[in-house]
Every structure is written in C-alpha cells, then in structure tokens.
Amino acid sequence: RELLNKINAKKEEVKNLAKENKIEEAKAAKKELIDLQAKFDVLYDLEDEAEEKIKDDIENENVTVISGAVNKGKEVVNAFVNAIKAGLSKKNSMKEGTEADGGLTVPQDIQTSIKELRRSQDALENLVNVETVSTETGTRVIEKAADQTPFDNVDEEAEFQEVSTPQFEKISYKVKKKGGILKVTRELLQDTAENIMGYLRRWIAKKSKATRNALIVKKIDEITTSKEVSIKDLDGLKDIFNEKLDPAIAVSSGVVTNQSGFNWLDKLKDSDGKYVLQADPTNATKKLLFGEYPVTVVSNKVLKSKGVGSSGQETAWKHPIICGDLKEAITIFDRENMTIEISTEAGDLWGKDQTGIKVRERLDIQAVDSEAIVKAEVEVAVTP
Predict the structure, then answer these.
(1) Which of 22, 23, 66, 190 could in theory staple to 83 by disulfide, Cβ–Cβ 3.0 to 4.6 A?
(2) Please, are residues 341 and 293 in contact by the beta-carbon 8 Å criterion?
(3) d(CA 178, CA 359)
(4) Of 373, 376, 330, 370, nearest to 228 (Cα)?
(5) Extended strands (E) in the chain
(6) Rounded distance, CA 336 to CA 130, Å?
(7) What is the pTM of this model?
C-alpha cells in the first residue's frame, strides 16, 4: 500500500513539473518513478502467494491484514475486499484510527470507477476546475483582473515611459478530511467480491458527489452574498451576460439553477411567443439559453431558493440563477487519496452484528475569480 501511494504521488509530481515546464526536474522525477515501478514489479509475484494465503485464512477464520493489492482488474477487487473481510473475520485485527491495522488505501482503478459514478449529470464538480494535488497544503499565484492601459506613443529618440506592471494574488489551499461511516451487515460481507464492491462504489460515489455539491454551493454563496442581482424578465438576464460579466468570461459561460429556477426559465418566451430555452443540438438532454449558454439543473435540495416572508408562510420564493464560468471562479484541490477503515466494535455495531466501514477523502475548495460568476434571483409569488 505504501509503495502504491508513492508511485501515484510520483506520477502526479511528474505531471505537475511538466505542466510548469520544469523539464529537467520532471525527467529526474520520472526516473524515480521508474525505479519505484521496478521495485513494485519485483514484489508483484509475491502477491499471488499472499492472496492465496488470505483465501485460506478466511476459510479457516485465521487472517491477517493484507499489505498490498494486486494492481490489475478483478484481482484488485478481490484482494481489496479480502482485506475488508479480514477485518470482520478476526477480532481486533482492524481498529478504527489505526493506520497500520485498519487503514486501506483504495486501489487506483476502484477509485477511478468511483469517480466516474460520482460525476453524473447533476454533479457540480463537472462545472468547476479540479486540480489534483500531491501535498496537504500549497499556493497558486494568479494574475488579478485589472483594466489594461494601452501603450503611449513614443517619439523618435524619446524616453520610454513606465507602464503599470501585472498585479498578482496568492490563492492558498489546505486539504481537509471529509468522510462518513457505512454500516453493513455480516451477511453482505459474506457475499461475492463483485457485489460488495458494487455496493461500496455506489455508496461512496453518492456521498462523494453530495460532499462536493455542498462545498461548491457554499463557495458560490460566499462569492455572491450581498451581490445578488434581482431580475424580472428576459432583459434582466441579457443585462448580466452583456454588461456584468467580462466579455472574455461570457464566451465560456453557462447557467446553473435549481428545479424552480429552471421552471421559470423554461416558460420564458420571446416577442414572437417562442420559448427562449432551446434544445442543445449536441446533447438532446440539455437546453441552451439564447442559443449559446448551456443550462445545468440541480435539485432544489442542493441549490435552495430563498423564502420571502415568515418561515412556513412564505409569500414568494427567490430562485437562484447562476450565470458565468464556474471553472474560472472555483477550483477544487483534490488530494485523491481515499482510505477505508473497518471496525466491528465501534458504537453499537457489535450488538447488531454489523461492520462499520469508515470512508475518508481529502480535498479543499477555493474561489479563484469571484467576478467570473453572477447570481441572479427571480422572485416568484407563491400560488394560493
């Protein structure tokens, strides 16, 4: 497990160095990666023997924690699930909070399939910038948006005048731990490896997507609080794209709204009585605003409307319509190092014959360009 972590971290280091045009450093890091891979290959043959031993130990209820995972297809799943079963089969062999006893790093191909499930159509992660990082903390330096003053004329043999230099600001990230506990029965863990992993993948993907959606919505609220733009009609939306968003941002912009906001948009008609939202010719399930801005709809439970009036007796609702480019506005710094811990004794699990599977992942989210999005609000009266 430790060796696989080093290999994955080194891969990211090589990629990051290459992106930063640090070619010599990238070459040196790549050589280290090759050496690590060679070491892994040397130990690879030993894994088959270890896996067979685990199968025998599970049958005899005499198991130890697996120390690695075979890095290929179905064998990865089997070895990973065997390690989880090992924590159930031998009392106290795995304990929460003890990395050496209970911490399992999710194999890369399993994590990839979880990521694919997580990025469904209602996942806001698809709309923001996601940067994979290999460190717990770090900084990024970006150029501040500023009005550009053109060069002055320079007469022959005249002295050049100084011009304003670019202004930069530092964006810092600090990876935070996110996670939860899945309670499963002994009967489930006695099922096939494929069924167990299918269940775990779906559960982890659902929770991971919910986590990212909540973080993105919270960051959007932070960026736009007290800057909301009230709109009443189609012209209000045009004002946002024509005037409030920089033309360079408007080109790559889209719209994100909830179900209620989409319902309002979907009923808008132009002067000829035609609906404003049009089908996206490249994706039949999507709509375009003004024929160019893709519209993404998320649940009212994820992106909430604001009530007007007293709670429980609202007279109207303000539905959010976020316009702009979320990839320019927000970045998720993703550590991409998911881990699992197992316990049969934490809390009330022992008496219910359950196993607790604690899943954790680490990431941070930061605003990069707060002017890249504008939150519009349309007020719709409550129908009696």
Answers:
(1) 66
(2) no
(3) 8
(4) 376
(5) 104-105, 129-132, 137-143, 168-174, 176-185, 229-231, 254-258, 278-280, 283-289, 293-298, 306-310, 313-324, 330-334, 339-343, 354-367, 373-381
(6) 11
(7) 0.72
At 137, give phi and psi (nearest 5°). -135, 160
Total residue length of the chain: 384
Q: Which position has the higher pLDDT, 153 or 46?
A: 153
**pLDDT at site 346:** 59
* Structure confidence by residue, pLDDT tens digits, 87-144: 555 443 333 333 334 568 888 888 888 988 998 878 999 999 999 998 889 998 877 6
Q: How far apart are CA 15 and CA 320, in angstroms?
A: 38
Q: Which of 64-68, 73-77, 297-301, 380-384 has the lowest mean pLDDT?
A: 64-68
Least-confidence region, from 51-60, 138-147, 238-247, 311-320: 51-60
Residue at 87: amino acid letter: G
Cα gap 234→372, rounded to integer Å: 21
Q: Phi/psi of residue 96, each to 5°?
A: -60, 140
Does residue 76 contact residue 58 with C-beta atoms inside 8 Å?
A: no
Mean pLDDT, rounded, for 315-336: 94
Q: Name the burial class of residue 379, with classes exposed (0-12), middle (13-18) and buried (19+) by CB atoms within 10 angstroms of its CB.
A: middle
| 209 Cβ contact partners less than 8 Å away, ≥ 6 residues apart | 118, 119, 120, 122, 123, 125
For 368-384, the pLDDT digits (tens) are 999 999 999 999 998 76
Tokens of 220: 């959007």
8 Å CB contact between 26 and 17: yes
Angle between helices 73-89 and 23-59 (to 10 degrees): 50
Report helix angle 193-224 to 108-118, nearest 10: 50
Q: Whose CA is closest to 275, among 267, 287, 286?
A: 267
Which residues is 317 bridged to in the sheet? 307, 380
